[in-house]
Amino acid sequence: MTPVERAGSTASDHPPARGGRGVHLALTAAVALAVLVLGWLKRWTSDDAFINFRVVHELLAGNGPVFNAGERVEVATSPLWLAVLTVADAIVPGDAAPWTSVVLGLALTATAVTVASIAAARLWAKAPSWVVVPFGVAVFAALPPTWDFTTSGLETGLSFSWIALSFWGLVRWVQRDTPLAHRPVWLLVLLGVGPLVRPDFAVISGILLLFVVLVGAGRWWQRLLGLVFAGLLPVAYQVFRMGYYGLLVPNTAVAKESSRPLWSRGFVYLADLVAPHLLWVPALLALGLLAVLAPQARWLRREWILVVVVLAAAAVHALYVVRVGGDFMHARLLMPSVFLALCPVAALPVTRRHAAVTGTLLAGAAVWAVSSVFFLRIDYPDSVADSGLADERGFYAALAGVKNPITLADHGGAGVSAYTDQVNRAALEGRDEIVLQVVPVRPSTPMAVLAPSSGGMVFSVGNAGFYGVASSSSVFVVDGFGLTDPIASHIAPGPPGRPGHEKIFPAWYLLARYGAPELAEEVTPGLSDPAGVAASRDALSCGDAAQLIEATSGELTVGRFFSNVVHAPEMTSFRIPVDPTEARDQFC
Q: How far is CA 180 from CA 188, 209, 334, 406, in A?
C-alpha cells in the first residue's frame, strides 16, 4: 500500500461534519421508525410460519426438530430462524411463538435498515459532503412488500439483518490498513452462516467469501483457514442434516422441486415485483447517483471491488430466484436481493460538486417514494392472481376477517380449533382413522373421515401450519402438498403449476402409507381402487422407497446416521412415479 492509500485507508481519516453526521443518524432513525410503524400496521403471520411453530413445539417437547414425532423430516427452511424461535419460545411464557416472530421480525428489519445506512455512510465517508442522506434504505422502506414481510412469522427480517451486518462487516474490513483473508474470525463466521438463514443465501455467502479470500492478504494456508472458519457452522449443520434427515436439502426444497429450472415462470415473478412498483425508477436513479458520486468517493481499489461484488451477489441471487421459478408469495424471495443491491447506496453523500444533479435525482426518488407509499400496488389485492401469485398477507387477512391475523385464534381459529379438537379427541380415544381437512371450516363442521388408518389418527391437510399447531403431537399431520411427508415430497413432478403447490399427494399412496390393510384388498366406495393401493404399498416396501422410509422413520442409531450421510445425495434426487404400477415395476 502506498503512503497515499494508507492515508486514505480508513473512514475516520475523513469524518463528515458533526452536524452532517447527526442529520444522517436522525434521518436513518426516521426511516427505521417508518419501517416499524408500517410493518406494525401490516403485522400478520402466514400459514408457513405455523409450520415452524409446530416444529418449535416438538423440539420443546423433546421430540427433536421434526414436524411429526417419530418421523425425521426437515420442514423448516431456515435452521437459524427455527433456533431463534425455539429459544424465544422457551424463555417467554405461554404459546409465544406467533407474537415472538412478529416482534423479532419488526426489530430485525429495523436493525437491518439502521446498520445498512451506517455501513454505507462509512463507505462514502471520504467524499467531501455536507450531509449524508439514507437514500437506499428509504427506497426499501417505501416498498409495500417490505411492510408485508417485516413480519409474516417467517425468516425475512433475519435475512435483512444478516445482509446488513455482513455488508457492515465487509465495509469495515476493506477499510483496514491490511485486510487479512483469515481475520476477523467473527466476520468469516457471519458470512458463512448465510445458508443457515436461507438455503439460497449460499449464493450470496459464496460470492462474498470468495471476495474476502481473494482480496485479503495472506498465504495460501491463511486463505484456506479463512474458508474453514466460514464453513464450520454450515458444514456441521449440513452433516447433521444428511445424517438426521437423510437429505442434502430441506424436505420443502424437494417438495417444491427447487432444482428444476423454470425461467419463464421466474421472469413472471420478477416482473410482478418490478412492474407494479415501478422498481426500475429507483434503480435508474441509484445508478445515476452512483455515476455522479462515485468519482468523488476517493475509494481504494478494494472498496470499488466491494461495491461491484455486492451488486453482483444481489444480481446472481435474483437470477437464482428467477431460475427456480420464484415463489407463490408476491415479491418475498426477491426482497433480500433488492435489499442487498441497495446496501452500497443505503446512505449517500450530498456533495457540493454536482449538487444540482444530485438534488434533482434525490427529488425524483422522493416523488417515486411518495407514489410507492400511497399509489403503486399490485392488481390482485387480497387475492390470488391468475398466475398463482398471491397477495399472501391480504389473502389471509381477508380470509380470517381480521385486519392483523397473528395467533391461531385470529386465523379463523374458531373453526380450525373446533374441527381439530374433534381430531385430538379421537386420538385420545384411541381411534384409528384418516381424516381430511374441510374447506370452509366452521365450529359446527363435523369431522370428515376418509378411511380407517393402520394405527392412530392421521390428519391430511392443505394448511399444514394452522392445523399442525392446532393438532396434538399424537396426531400425525400429513401435508397434501408434500412439505411434511418424505414420500409425498418425492413424488415425480408433473407440469409446472402454481409455485409451491404443484405436488398433490396421490390418494393411493396416502392410503398405502397410512391406511388399514384391508384398503388394499377390498373395494371401498369413494376410495381408490384396492389394486392401486396394493401396488403403492408394494412399491413403498421395495428398493429406494423403502430405504427412504427407513432413513426417516427407523431408529436413529450411529450406523443409521452415517448410512444416511452416505446415501443422502441419491435419496435427495430419488423420485417416485405417480403411477403405482410403474413405481412397483421400477423398485421391485
A: 11, 12, 32, 46
When pLDDT is averaged across residues 197-204 and rounded to a whole number, the result is 97
Element (H, E) at 219: none
Give the residues across from 390 on adjacent strands. Answer: 329, 384
- Residue 154: name the closest of 230, 88, 80 by CA: 80
Tell me the pLDDT tens digit for each residue of 416-445: 999 999 999 999 999 999 999 999 999 999
Give one word for 247, left, alpha or beta, with left for phi > 0 and alpha for psi -120 to 50. beta
Task: Using alpha carbons, select from 113, 101, 115 the residue that is nearest to residue 154.
Answer: 101
| pTM of the predicted protein model | 0.95
Report the alpha-carbon distance of residue 546 to residue 538 in Å, rounded: 10
Q: What is the mean pLDDT of residues 214-240?
A: 96
DSSP string, 367-435: HHHHHHHHT---SSTTSB-TTS-B-HHHHHHHHHT-SS--STTTTTHHHHHHHHHHHHHHHHTT--EEE
Average pLDDT estimate for 28-43: 98
Tell me, letter by letter, the H, E, C secondary structure of 112-123.
Answer: HHHHHHHHHHHH
Query: What is the chain's mean pLDDT, rounded?
Result: 94
Please tell me the distance from the alpha carbon of residue 469 to that of residue 413, in angstroms, as a whole number: 11
Let me know if 56 is exposed, middle or buried by CB neighbors in 10 A (0-12, 13-18, 19+): buried
Confidence check: pLDDT of 93 > 90: no
Spatial distance between the Cα atoms of 523 and 525, rounded to a whole number of angstroms = 7
How far is C-alpha 179 from the geometric centre of its chain's CA atoms?
A: 32
Q: Whole-angstrom Cα distance, residue 306 to residue 122?
A: 13
**pLDDT on residue 498:** 85
Q: Is the pLDDT of residue 6 over 60?
A: no
* Amino acid, single-letter form, for residue 352: R
Phi then psi for residue 87, to 5 deg, are -65, -45
Residue for grid cell 449524508: 132
Q: Name the residue with cell 502506498.
A: 2
**Quick one: average pLDDT of 90-98?**
88
Which residue type, as a one-letter code, is found at position 37? V
- Interacting residues of 481 by C-beta distance below 8 A, sequence separation 6+: 255, 462, 464, 488, 500, 501, 502, 503, 504, 505
- 24: region left, alpha or beta (phi > 0 left; psi from -120 to 50 alpha): alpha
Q: Residue 297 is placed in which grid cell?
A: 468517493
Residues whose CB is less than 8 angstroms from the CB of residue 283 and which lie 6 or more positions away in sequence, other chains included? none
Spatial CA neighbour of 16 closest among 303, 348, 361, 362: 348
Say whether 277 sits in a helix, a strand or coil: coil
If pLDDT is split at 50, 70 and 90, which confidence band does 190 have? very high
CA–CA gap between residue 258 and residue 420 (Å, rounded): 32
Give the 3-state secondary structure of residue 390.
strand
Cell numbers representing residue 414 in the block: 374458531
Residue with cell 374433534: 422
The number of C-alpha atoms within 13 Å of 149 and in the hemisphere containing its C-beta is: 25
pLDDT tens digits, 339-398: 999 999 999 999 988 889 999 999 999 999 999 999 999 999 999 999 999 999 999 999
β-bridge mates for residue 405, sequence order: none
d(C-alpha 494, C-alpha 575), whole Å: 12
